[in-house]
Design brief:
This protein is mainly α. The chain has two domains: 132 residues, no CATH class; 124 residues, no CATH class. Helix content is 73%, strand content 0%. α1 runs antiparallel to α2, α1 runs antiparallel to α5 and α3 packs parallel to α7.
Length: 259
């Protein structure tokens, strides 16, 4: 039982310290958007801590740490390229928050991101600490889904980046590839990653705790910073073209166009 407490606490201390350093850097360069990059990379840090300290069944621990590390690296590198390409120009949502928040509020915001890293890593902890000396079919299904969703999320991000890289597409609505079937395929695969993690975790002791991940991520996607804010900005910038896209295209699950 001690590892169920010590490993999360070590992880929390590590990522909180990292976020203190990132807060200092963000303040120096006047760009709080870099928090997103290190939120993603913090999962790699946690995966390494788990791999070093967890004493569960070795093959299961290796699988969950490898998948968590791959997902963290893919998302972190994508954000590093996107945000890092304009470090001197803070993203609009953070500019707006800068007008409303003090440095103290931003400090606690950065720390809250570290706490969310650990909360969302609960499934990784319980999976890696599971001593059962074999993996069940449910765990293989969860791991397989997780791999496919990492690929799907990466593909949707790449397709959007490719579309935006073409000068002739400036001001247009992306309907390239997966974006022809869903207005937010990246959010869909992001959500499905956490469903996959939940499936992977269910056979482990305390695996039901993994439900906190899709529930919290789903709430953010559907009610807070995901779809609502993204679509509000898209309607402002693209007007009727985006409204027509909303009318004809599934908001979340990839599906065929409406007539």
């Amino acid at each position: 039982m001690s590892n169920y407490l010590s490993i999360p606490l070590i992880s929390l201390a590590s990522v909180c310290f990292i976020m203190i350093l990132i807060f200092i850097w963000a303040k120096a360069i006047k760009n709080n958007g870099i928090v997103d990059i290190f939120w993603a990379f913090n999962f790699l840090v946690i995966a390494i801590i788990i791999w070093l300290l967890a004493d569960g069944y070795e093959p299961r621990k290796n699988v969950v740490c490898l998948l968590a590390a791959l997902w963290s690296l893919r998302l972190g590198i994508y954000l590093l390229i996107r945000v890092g390409s304009h470090l001197k120009e803070e993203e609009g949502r953070y500019k707006k928050l800068r007008e409303e928040w003090s440095d103290t509020v931003f400090f606690f915001f950065f720390q809250s991101q570290a706490i969310s890293n650990v909360m969302l890593s609960i499934p990784f902890f319980v999976i890696a600490l599971n001593p059962e000396p074999h993996m069940s079919i449910i765990e293989y299904i969860g791991a397989g889904m997780w791999c496919l969703c990492i690929i799907g999320e990466g593909l949707s991000d790449w397709q959007l980046k490719y579309f935006k890289s073409k000068p002739e597409n400036k001001g247009k609505v992306c309907q390239y590839g997966l974006w022809n079937y869903s207005r937010h395929p990246n959010y869909f695969f992001q959500f499905m990653i956490w469903i996959s993690v939940l499936i992977f975790a269910l056979p482990s002791p305390y695996g039901y705790l993994a439900a906190i991940c899709p529930l919290s991520i789903g709430y953010l996607i559907f009610k807070v910073t995901g779809i609502p804010m993204t679509e509000e900005q898209a309607v402002r910038s693209k007007g009727d073209a985006y409204k027509e896209y909303q009318r004809t295209t599934s908001a979340f699950v990839p599906w065929f166009k409406k007539a």
